[in-house]
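hey so u asked for the seq, here:
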Amino acid sequence: METSAGEIGYLRATSAVLHHCAFKYVDRKNILIHHAESVAALNLPPLDIIFGKTAAMQAVRNKLERVAETDVPVLIQGESGTGKEVCVRLLHALSRRSDGSLVKVSCPAIPHSLLETELFGYEKGAFTGAMSTKLGRVEQAHMGTLFLDEVGSLDLAVQAKLLQVLQDGTFTRVGGHEPRSITTRLITAANCDLRSQVEDGTFRLDFLFRINAVTINLPPLRQRIADLPVLIDHFIEHYANVFHHTPELLSKSAVRLMQNYHLPGNIRQLENLIRSYVLI
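ran it, structure tokens below
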């Protein structure tokens, strides 16, 4: 599937309009603070640690606050280990669908041959071994949130079926004939450039158009170095409680060394380093 430069330009321009419209009618109050109890129930680090104090992460927090109580699809982009799933959990907890399920699909972890049945379910007798009807992840997310992690790995056929769900809320189980209706909010995450995949023909332009009504870009840890000392202290305290062992605090020189290190695994790598430090 080839995509022209004009279509890419149209996607970018239309996305900008959708971003504006999504925010125009949203109450600008601090939704995260207003829902402090809901956030606490997630068992996440304090919000000031999650979002830090850098301008890039404050922009992320501001955008998350704006879209949390809407139903618009959200695409979260960022390198591995930057905290995309934390943002997904916050968006769900602060949404009007928080009483429903947050259903996660790790797209690369499911073999392509099984992905359609995993997402859309199947009817009894749909294939050999289908001894009973099975609900798919899409149907399990009815009245809740469907989270597609690493959405760029989906094949084109599955993208087409998901596009139908986004367009009119209907789908058909594998082996079935009766369209089924659901209502769910879709959140996707990607650690790759989906626009490049559109140009390569491995990702549908119309599907990208649907999933990125709002895009949240998470910066890598190297772009928020000012937050590193607070993150280090948090992880030391957390794992000291987990392992019932209080290590020595890292010296300022050790922190400076870590600030000068690239940390390609971002916050996940930092957490693993501190966990090992506390344990050993």
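Residues 5-24 form the longest helix (20 residues). The beta strands are 74-77, 102-106, 145-149, 170-171, 180-181, 185-190, 214-217.
lmk if thats what u needed
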